[in-house]
């Protein structure tokens, strides 16, 4: 069946919800070969998510190896996008521990970066939301610490580059108690509506978020089905997925939504948009593979006609607990 014969409103292609990562480690990176080798490439992105930098487990060295590997490609990326969970955890860590993690992240990045970088925040980058009563009065409580560390004004934004429009979302919303859920608050959703309205329906749009807007691999997180039900909580996939999808239905130029968070690789085609979750730089938080997915990053090629190609790249990191 050609793309032209597939309804734009087709539901999750039951067989076509392609979880690229399935059984064997080698299959985690097995994605569809490009169908458009002669098109003009506009941009090559290295997408690095769920880095979970920490003083332990040689994470600094692993982060460095990842940057070296991506930028050492014969066909180099033009830009690096980080995808959130840049540090191991700030949700329940004290200020000194959070600072130590950001210091490692930035020291390695600044020493090794050769191309521009754009950052996206993850849930683990938010300080104190797992222990609000302890940390809420601190000046850098919440997202302030991460924004300061990354020299960002806001956790969400958009920009244009190489003929594409890029939208970076902030997935992490507070709960009334401790913890978080995945959704855009009303201010951010209105900003997204306005931003898309300004872009119109022609320029191809790339959306970057930490938590998936729509995901297949979220079903494989933990021992999900052991309870006797499939269960995907709001912390795993955007609770406002339906509202965002409805908005995207008005913009055929929204092409691809790239996320992390689950540490697995998938690809869901829904209503003409590709939602793809990418594996983690740290895989199992620097302790080895996470299910079938190894430590890796993604190369994402964007073309001038609005098409794109993704490839998950492992960089050969093995867990090293002793350093
Ligand atoms: Fe993560």
Characterise the protein shown here:
This protein is α/β, with parallel strands linked by helices. It has a single domain (3-27, 41-314), classed as Metallo-dependent phosphatases (Purple Acid Phosphatase, chain A, domain 2, 4-Layer Sandwich). It contains 6 helices and 13 strands. The protein has a 6-stranded mixed sheet with strand order 4-5-8-9-11-10, covered by helices on one side. Helix 1 packs parallel to helix 2 and helix 2 (95-112) packs parallel to helix 4 (144-150). The radius of gyration is 19 Å and the shape is globular. The structure holds fe (ii) ion. Residues 50, 52, 85, 124, 261, 263 line the site of fe (ii) ion.
How would you summarize what this structure contains?
This protein is α/β, with parallel strands linked by helices and 323 residues long.
